[in-house]
Amino acid sequence: MVTTSNTNDPLRVWPPYPGVLLRRDMRGVSVSQVQERLNELGATPRLATDGIFGPITEAAVVAFQRSRGLASDGIVGPLTWGALFSPAPQPLWPPYPGTAQRRGARGESVRQIQERLNQLGANPRLAVDGSFGPLTEAAVIAFQRSRGLVPDGVVGPLTWGALFPSAPTPPVPPQPPTPPPVPTRTIVLDPGHGGSDPGAVMGTRRESDDNLRLALAVQRLLQAQGQRVIMTRSTNVNVSLAERSAISNRNNADIFVSFHRNSAGPTANGVENFVFTTAPTGTVQNAFDVLDEIINAGVQRNRGVRRGNFAVIRNTNAPSMLLEMGFITNTRDNQLFDQNFDAYAAAIARGIMTALRTPRPPMPYTFYTVTASDNLQSIANRFGTTQAALMQLNKLSGPGLITGQVLKIPR
Which of 67, 146, 274, 292 has the highest count of CB atoms within 10 angstroms of its CB? Predict the structure, then answer.
């Protein structure tokens, strides 16, 4: 099994040190390996394994260096690489394929994972077809939980090392079937529009399709964590606004999340999360729980949590939010939606699970709803704080505010 070691010899670790210092703005496979390893070690926020050494990757490297007593310069040189990656005195069997295996992967390495999970009693048993689908992902998550690993459903070096020993072992006898975990919460996911109502359209791209695809991805992640997830629609069909709320109310949902894409002129951009105009503090905090995770995954602009009078959040009894996942009329927002799709789905699932925590810890801030006459400086003056503090606390992309936007105000 792969274990963490603080060796500083780059020749004795696996994967081998690339021979160059990895730092801000560099790209490539070695950067992806660093991102995957930091995620395995519990990086918060989780990193996009895109091979781009950006500010979030740099911050995660600094945090790791501090935790190991290394110089915290955010640069991955031989010492930091040696601390990140473990010695491999004996080769794993079968050998790690060199890249993380995740949803959508295909090939012999995926087939080996499926066979091994079946040997370890995967329930339901997996088809050994070499295709990394949702059932394989759920089985990987269950295995990672059983080994105390980060349950992200990605088979990187640490999970591969836990799956496969350094020498073959006899198969584990099949275990009797065990019942699925008892759901602890009821979550209603509402992909906006559908059927004859495509929502906003940009060329061949339809809002209704994006909404459904993202909601289904979040559903899979939440179900893998034992949650009861109800969809207002799972296919391209019409569902009235009244029925969407009724589905949530009939099922006594604990939380309701509606998925949308925004539409305006080509320069409008950014992600925002709406709550009802009179939503209580707890619901506002739920919306921040989800939005903050999305912002950490990478957006063009954070348009904040806002109050609005939309039917699905007005007529739903459960704490409700309406997510606008970027503007379908903005090219860069569409690129980010596709590029960060898995990261967005994981972020929303994490935010929902955070919102459902009970009891909730006390928050070190209050909330204030922006009016038409407000600006960031006037709000800072009113509450005895600074613009910089408000921007940092609210993860704002700039000082501009929107009427109806809710701000966190430090206590």
Answer: 274
Cα 37 from Cα 247, distance rounded (Å): 41
Per residue in 54-104, pLDDT (tens digit) is 999 999 999 999 888 888 899 998 889 888 886 644 455 788 888 899 999
46: left (phi over 0), alpha (psi -120 to 50) or beta: beta
pTM over 0.85: no
Known catalytic residues?
324
- pLDDT over threshold 60, residue 258: yes
Domain spans, the chain: 10-84, 91-174, 186-355, 365-410
Q: Is the model's pLDDT at 402 over the cut of 70?
A: yes
**Which CATH code fits 186-355?**
3.40.630.40
> What average pLDDT does range 226-237 have in this prediction?
95
Return the CATH architecture of domain 10-84: Orthogonal Bundle (1.10)
Contact between 76 and 84 under an 8 Å Cβ cutoff? The reply is: yes
Homologous superfamily of domain range 91-174: PGBD-like superfamily/PGBD (1.10.101.10)
User: What is 365-410's CATH number?
Assistant: 3.10.350.10
